[in-house]
Specification:
Layout lengths: L8 E6 L8 E5 L2 E7 L5 E5 L13 E3 L2 E3 L6 E2 L5 E3 L17 E4 L2 E5 L23 E10 L3 H8 L5 H4 L15 E4 L3 E11 L3 H6 L6 E10 L3 E10 L6 H6 L1 E11 L5 E9 L6 H32 L11 H23 L5 H4 L4
Antiparallel strand pairs: 1-10, 2-3, 3-4, 5-6, 6-7, 7-8, 9-10, 11-17, 12-13, 13-14, 14-15, 15-16, 16-17
The chain binds FE2/S2 (inorganic) cluster (FES) and fe (ii) ion.
Length: 358
């Protein structure tokens, strides 16, 4: 079990990464092997032969059949052993775990928990996805040398943008603006408006603001580790409603965190925006800027992770800005505890228990 929520959909890969060559990726600490069947549908198996534990990815894909590279055991897409060279009987334990997959938003989503609970309707909905007037950048990936909860801390923490991102998405105007927090069944929201402020570097570059601006940062964290940020700028003083926000410079930034190990995380991201649309060179600019922004987080979080490993301590001081991160950790802990209890008592976890909030 360990310290991950298993009964949830995680992005395992972008669709473009999964093909007829094996793709291997560690997910929630487990080695996963992915490929596409001849009919194009994706498959995920535990990358571990049940015989001598050789990684199956060292062997060959024969049609849709996975052949171990050590003694040639063959498995079908469900992980059932279909051939043992040199003996007619197939031992019942010769079975590889397979994982449910769903393809959505150009991504392959994996379910590492109880198979019976895997419901594709639970996959998060992406705002304005492929809607007219909104441009999409997707297929982006970064590897964070950080525990995923340090990243979720960061993603509901608008206060850090002033310091970590002063060259990209923050400026000094945000320094003393308090962050408000709201909590729902399955999410935590940290948000603030920064009023009468100089436009941030991004807004100066992409927008056409003549004077001061109001800007908003709404940081949502959905269980277990999906972040989306509704982020935008309007002229100072305009009424705060959806219509005006959509007329301003607005974007939705999605970060799908998939724990790799206790200390490392896969960071898949996509971005939807309403400004400078239909311009591939602007897409490239925004991709570069977002990558730069996330790399700023990557650097500080890797350093934080290292210091935490050295000291065995996560934080010595708790501040007001830690309210939202603390709520997420509480929700996550509760879900993990429910899953562990179910595993120990051998009573399968129910869908209702999956909805437990903090
Ligand atoms: S280790 Fe895979 S067949 Fe022996
Ligand atoms: Fe950040």
């Amino acid at each position: 079990m360990g310290t991950f929520i298993r009964n949830a959909w995680y992005v395992a890969a972008w669709s473009k990464e999964v093909g007829r060559q094996y793709l291997t990726r560690r997910i929630l600490g487990e080695p996963v092997l992915m490929y596409r069947k001849e009919d194009g549908s994706p498959v995920a198996l535990l990358d571990r032969c049940p015989h001598k534990l050789a990684p199956l990815s060292l062997g060959e894909l024969k049609g849709d059949i996975v052949e171990c590279g050590y003694h040639g055991l063959q498995f079908d897409c469900s992980g059932t052993c279909v051939r043992v060279p040199g003996q007619p009987q197939i031992p019942p334990a010769a079975q590889v775990k397979s994982f449910p997959l769903v393809e959505r938003y150009n991504a392959v989503w994996i379910w590492m928990g109880e198979e019976a609970l895997a419901n594709p309707d639970d996959i998060v909905e992406v705002e304005r996805y492929r809607m007219p007037g909104w441009d999409l950048i997707d297929g982006q990936y970064l590897h964070f040398k950080s525990n995923y909860l340090n990243i979720t801390d960061n993603l509901v923490d608008p206060a850090h943008t002033t310091y970590v991102h002063k060259n990209t998405i923050g400026n000094a105007a945000g320094e003393n603006v308090t962050v408000k927090v709201e909590q729902g069944e399955q999410h935590v929201l940290a948000y603030r408006w920064i009023e009468n402020a100089e436009p941030i570097p991004l807004a100066k570059k992409m927008g056409d603001f003549k004077g001061l601006t109001d800007r908003w940062q709404y940081y949502y964290l959905l269980m277990p580790s999906i972040s989306y940020v509704d982020f935008g700028t309007v002229d100072a003083g305009v009424e705060r409603n959806e219509e005006n926000k959509n007329r301003g410079l607005r974007s939705f930034s999605y970060n799908f965190l998939t724990p790799e190990t206790e200390n490392t995380t896969h960071y898949f991201w996509l971005h939807v925006r309403n400004y400078q649309t239909g311009k591939p060179d602007i897409d490239a600019d925004v991709t570069k800027l977002m990558t730069l922004t996330f790399e700023e987080d990557m650097a500080i979080l890797a350093a934080v992770q290292q210091a935490q490993e050295e000291t065995g301590v996560r934080e010595y001081v708790r501040l007001g800005i830690d309210n939202a991160p603390a709520r997420i950790r509480k929700m996550v802990d509760k879900r993990i505890a429910a899953e562990q209890l179910a595993a120990e008592s051998n009573v399968p976890i129910t869908r209702a228990e999956l909805q437990v909030a903090g």
